[in-house]
């Protein structure tokens, strides 16, 4: 039963309605990971600086660690788990796999979500916008940026990924 400091929030995650009972200032990141068992959004800095926790909110990339749960009520969240198709990686994920873009991989899910949001816009973001956004919002401490950009170039070119 909810205690007096908690409320119940209804929102959509990866196309399905979910209900979470929690303090309203709980971050979306912790609600996803702890209450909904979706671990794809990573806990990095937890301060809005590294981008590891990025998900889409109504199609826009946001940092879920600094997004209070109450702000997502009745809205649509997509996590990296929502990009898979029939249990297989989605197109952009396959581009990243084909380029072996992950070193430790900690940053990659967030980067894929940001690129998904930018390429999903109308019109899609161009390469310069994508690079600038990644530079502003994401850290890759492994120095895998070269391979990450090659994977993004495949996506911009519409190259179908082959990895499964
Ligand atoms: S964990 Fe959210 S920006 Fe670093
Ligand atoms: S691949 Fe390790 S932080 Fe980017």
What is the alpha-carbon Rg in Å? 16 Å
- Which blocks of ≥5 consecutive residues have pLDDT under 50? none
Mean pLDDT: 95
Please count the helical segments. 5
Termini, distance in Å? 42 Å
Helix share bin: 25-40%
Secondary-structure class: alpha+beta
Number of E-type strands: 5
Order of helices and strands: EEHEEEHHHH
Largest pleated sheet = 5 strands, mixed
**Associated small molecules:** FE2/S2 (inorganic) cluster
Largest sheet strand order: 2-1-5-3-4
Q: Strand portion, in percent?
A: 15-25%
Characterize the overall form. globular
Per-chain topology:
Elements: E1 6-13, E2 16-23, H1 28-35, E3 54-57, E4 60-63, E5 76-78, H2 91-98, H3 108-119, H4 127-137, H5 145-157
Parallel strand pairs: 1-5
Antiparallel strand pairs: 1-2, 3-4, 3-5
Helix pairs in contact: 2-5, 3-4
Structure write-up:
There is one protein chain. This protein has 164 residues and is α+β, with helices and mostly antiparallel strands. It has five helices and five strands; from the N terminus they run E-E-H-E-E-E-H-H-H-H. A five-stranded mixed β-sheet has the order 2-1-5-3-4, with helices on both faces. The protein starts with 5 loop residues before the first strand and ends in a 7-residue tail after the last helix. The model has no long low-confidence stretch (mean pLDDT 95). The structure holds FE2/S2 (inorganic) cluster (2 copies). The site of one FE2/S2 (inorganic) cluster has 11 residues, from loops.
């Amino acid at each position: 039963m909810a205690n007096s400091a908690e409320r119940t929030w209804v929102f959509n995650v990866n196309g399905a309605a979910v209900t979470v009972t929690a303090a309203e200032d709980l971050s979306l990141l912790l609600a996803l990971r702890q209450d909904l068992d979706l671990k794809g959004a990573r806990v990095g800095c937890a301060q809005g600086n590294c981008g590891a926790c990025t998900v889409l909110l109504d199609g826009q990339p946001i940092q879920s660690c600094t997004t209070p749960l109450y702000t997502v009520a009745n809205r649509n969240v997509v996590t990296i788990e929502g990009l898979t198709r029939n249990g297989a990686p989605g197109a952009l994920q396959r581009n990243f796999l084909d380029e072996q873009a992950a070193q430790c991989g900690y940053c990659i899910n967030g980067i894929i979500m940001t690129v998904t949001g930018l390429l999903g816009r109308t019109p899609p973001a161009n390469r310069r916008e994508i690079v600038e956004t990644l530079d502003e919002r994401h850290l890759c401490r492994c120095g895998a940026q070269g391979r990450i950009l090659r994977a993004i170039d495949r996506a911009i070119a519409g190259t179908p990924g082959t990895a499964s």
